[in-house]
Amino acid sequence: MYTLHDCNTGESSFGFWGCVMLGVALFFVVSCSEQKQETASGPPPPVPVRAVAVKNMDAPDNLSGIGHVQAKNTVRIQTQVTGILKEIHFHEGDMVQKGQMLFTIDPEMYQAKVAETQAQLQLDTAKAKQSERDYLRYKNLWARNAVSEDEYEQYRTTYEAAQEQLQYDQATLRTAKINLGYCFISSPVSGIVGLLNVKQGNLVMANSTELVTINQVRPINVVFSLPEVDLTEVRNAAAKNTLTVAVKRPSDTKPIMGTLTVINNTVDESTGMINLQAEFANDNLALWPGQFVESVLTLSIQKDAVVVPNVAVMESQQGRSSFVITSNNTVELRQVEIERELGQSLVIKSGLHAGERVVTDGQLKLQPGATVKVVEKNSAQQKKNPETASATASEGAASTAETKPENAAEQSSAPASTPQTTQTP
Q: What is the pTM of this model?
């Protein structure tokens, strides 16, 4: 081993040239180490991210609420006469039309009553005609002083009473015919009949027995609620245009469209909500009374609004921001201002422009200026095949690891030959 003293005095057999050789060797070892570190660190690889393009689209201004379906009309069929329920002319659950026969109550007693009143009317009509003839004859006799005034007044009174009796008989006949008509019950609306409350053959009582309920479902109504803070906005919009309402059941993929028809005349004090009613054609009977649905009222439509998915916007203490991908595949952090929500998207007031690309997945790995690589593969496939994705990533990492040692060995082997060359002199 050589010391600094040995080199200065030259007492060793190697002397000065040994120290030179050692210095050159140390220089190349340090140089190789620095080159290896430089190669190992290098520029960072691009960060894989998912991205979407900012779009211009027509964005509706919506208000949402939970609603329930109600029949346009609900009619409870009751009997207006007492009798035996003789016939039922439909099946439970049938769609019946307005005017269609539903029930027949035994009409025999009411038919007899009509015949009786008709006979009484004919009898009283004959008596009235006779009293009229007597009245006119005695009127002439009284004018010639052939009869007393008392006799004349008697016949006049009899004639007038006969006329009043005719009017009574006619009213009684009309009542009898009306009651007879009540024995044949027809549907007052088109709709669907429910379950029967009384079966055929039972005695039904006038104005107390409910036979069945009919719900009119074409068209049909949906009643939903909104907070009272939205009332002014809704009223202003309804005054300008007919507002559309879209409803969806849990099983629906497409909304069912209708129109707003009623804004209730009072706010519920206990809940602070206002009820609204919309009407739907319901031609395919998709809506059924009693269902609960998601209701969306469209107040207006904003043309060419700037829209992005809500996952593209991040929340922080500095506000809301998005990572925007530049033309050289680097990202810049840009502050954005949100106008309102639109389902799973956001309407942007400022900060983004149509055509720009924003990062929707992988933001946590990014910082301003970072280089990114947009991954086009469907994330759903990655979730279905996590083993394949991890294996691909492992293979990539392994190949990178194998490449780097080879490069480092090549770099370190070239400088190692240099000291050997410098020993020749």
A: 0.65
How confident is the model over 154-211, as pLDDT tens digits?
A: 999 999 999 999 999 999 999 999 999 999 999 999 999 999 999 999 999 999 999 9
SS3 state of residue 3: coil
**Both structure tokens of 177:** 């015919």
- DSSP state letters, 108-160: HHHHHHHHHHHHHHHHHHHHHHHHHHHHHHHHHHHHTTSS-HHHHHHHHHHHH
Please say whether the dihedral angle defined by the alpha carbons of residues 306, 310, 313 and 319, taken in this order, is positive or negative: positive
Contact 221, 144 (CB under 8 A): no
Look at the block and give the residue holding tokens 């649905």: 293
Q: Three-class SS of residue 165?
A: helix
Q: What are phi and psi of 128, to 5 degrees?
A: -65, -40
The contacts of residue 396 (CB under 8 Å, 6+ apart) are none
Question: Which helix (H) or strand (E) segment is 35 a member of?
Answer: helix 16-41
Parallel, antiparallel or unpaired: strands 191-193 and 210-227 = antiparallel
* DSSP code at position 330: B
- Which tokens in the block code for residue 90? 């439909």
In which element (H, E) is residue 96 found?
strand 95-96
Strand partners, 395: none
